Every structure is written in structure tokens, then in C-alpha cells.
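Section 3.1: Structural characterization of target chains.
Under the original work plan, the team committed to producing a structural model for every single-chain target entering the pipeline before any wet-lab resources were allocated. The record below documents one such target. The sequence was received from the expression subgroup and is listed exactly as submitted; it comprises 414 residues.
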Amino acid sequence: MYLSTIDRPKTARGRALFLVSGNVFALGAVSLVTDISSEMVTAILPVYLMIGLHLSPALYGVVDGTYTGATAFLRLIGGYIADRSRRRKAVAGFGYGLSAVAKLGLLAAGSSVGAIGAVIAIDRTGKGLRTAPRDTLITLSTPPQLYGRAFGVHRMMDTIGAFAGPLVAVGILAATAQAYDAVFVASFCIAAFGVLLLVLFVRDHRDKQPPKNTVAPSALRELLRRGPVRRLVLAACVAGMVTIGDGFVYLLLQRREDLSIGWFPLLAVGTNLSYLLLATPLGILADKIGRLKVVLGGYTALVLVYLLLFGPFGGWPLLVVVLGLYGLFYASTDGVLMALAGPLLPEGFRTTGIALIQTGQAVSYLGSSILFGLAWTIWGPASASRIAAGLVVAAVFVVALLLRGISPRTEQPA
């Protein structure tokens, strides 16, 4: 049962401000545990592939793009299947289970690039399938006036897992003399525990469904007939095409500063810490001055990140500044872009519209990772980074041009 503040005395309302339903808390616990497992692998995958298996930057770009791009169309598919079958917990559980098994698949893949790519695609397939059903369960477990709080608590728990995952990986590598296999086994065990939490504590809502056509092909056609939506999707694709993967950024920092492999996962921790500290203030700022301005500011910070990777100074000041700016980039763009999109999307099609924007970003990201890997191989990492910075500058102007017709009123919360 959710805890509502309606028709309660003021003292009870005050105590209820931080409470959400048990189902939302259970889903948050599942996401927290699963993100520890996922980020353990994500944090070490770049060094495992390029230093441990000696992959070229071009091949790593293909694998890295697959890691994100594989979810591109599966968000829509997962939501549609869950709504049709009304078995949202089962679909989400299948996605979580698929990702857990993929961790063991990395052990079986050995040094085969094709097998590693296939296993990563399976892992990301699980993520794509579970996302929409999970978020739907959150809405069905919460009264409408408490949606913001419910999603806020869930995302907070999810981010705690993302913050802790690299730290766990560092501890395992230190205790096992850099044994990557030990990280993969531990990641599987933690992911399996997350699935167990889902099975035991998350309740399904098979008697309720969201409005018809919220996740359906007809909704996509209807959305793409709207000019502002088309421009927003195109802007998201342009922005995604000039954004290189986190792994590339961390690898370049590791090489520039000659960091020990055991410390490599802590680079992701630094970015996550910056994100945690800045996300809420920047979200409030976006509501006050305009969300598009904050998004464009975030991509400006990304330009600085790419330039500083081969900039005039190094050492710990470089690490602090780059990771701080990288967290600023994510805090300015990740949630704020969705907030910018919300008022442009009709309520009945909003889930599909947001999924469509995310799909465009994921497909573009696949292309950017491959192209950056090729540029690194052909021209070297310094030139590739500067080219990427120049392309982000161009993208900022293109995105501003595409979205300049969004009125101040449209940017305000719906």
C-alpha cells in the first residue's frame, strides 16, 4: 500500500513526505543491486578489452557502441509486450535474468571479440526489455500526485548502485591480483541476488493498464507527424552522434596520467559523485532559466572535457576538473532533456515519445563509438579528441537551431 498525504493531519503529512510504496522501494532495491553488478563490469571493461585482450581502438569502439546501442529498439518492444500480456513483472524479471546470465557469458567468451560482442548485446537486451515495464510498475504502485517522489527515490537508489559498483570492482581486483574473472563471477552473483529480490518482493499489477496506444506502432506514427517532436528527435540524434563513450574518456585519462589499472574504475566513481552533487541544483536551474539553455551548457562542458584530455596541464588537477565537468555534462543533459521533451509530447503518447528520443540517442551513440575508434586508430587519440570537441561545438549550434522554435512557455513544466 502506498502512503499518501491526502486527508491526513499536518504532522502525519510531514512524516509522509519521504515515504513511497513498498513496491517502489523494492524496485529501487532491485535497481540498486543490479547497478552494482552492471557498473562493476562497465568500470573495468575498457581496460579488460584494450589492455587485457589488446583490442584496437576501432574494435573497442564497435564493442562499446554495441553495449549501448543494443538497447535502442528494445525499450519500445519491452513496454509493448508487457502491456499486451499484462505481465510486467515477468517481462522485467526476464530482462534482469538475461543480464545476470550475460555476466557468466563473459567468462565463456574468453578472448573472442565476436563472442564478447554477442554477450554484451545479450546483456543490453536484458536492460532494454526491463526498463519500460519497471517504470510502468512504479506508476501503477503510486498515486499520480506522488509520481515525482516515487521516481526520485527510485533513481536515487539506482545511482547509489552505480556509485558503489566501481568501488566493489576495485576491491575485488586488489584482493585477487587483477583477476578480471573474479569480477565477472561476483557481478553474476550480485545480479542473481537482484533477480531474487524482484521475485520475492515486487508485486505485479496485472489488473491495470496504461492508456491504450502509449506503446504501439500507431503512437510512433502519430508522434512523428508533429514537427516539434521530429525536430527534438533529430536534435537528440545529432547530440548522440558527437558523444563518445565513457570508456574512451577514461582510457585517455588513464594513458595520459599513467594510472594503475587497479585505480581505473575509480574514474567512473568521480564522474558519478559529480553527477550526484549537481543533478538536483541543475534541474532546479533548468526550470528557472530554461531547459534548453542548461542542455546546451552541458554540451559546452563536454567540449571542455574533450579538449582537456590533451590540454596544457595534468596530474590530479586534471582528473578533478575533467571528472567534475563530465559529471556536469550528465547532470545538465540526462534528465533535463527528458524534462524538455515532456511538454512537447501529448500525455497519451509521452512514454512512447521519450522512448523514441532515447532510441535515437542510442542508435547515434553506436555510430559515434565506431567512428571515434576509427579516428583514434587512423589519426591518434589526441587528434581524435580534438575532432570530437569540434564536432560537439557544431552540434551545439545545430541543436540550438533545431529547437529555437520552442517557446519559453513550452519549456515550462506541463
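The radius of gyration is 21 Å.
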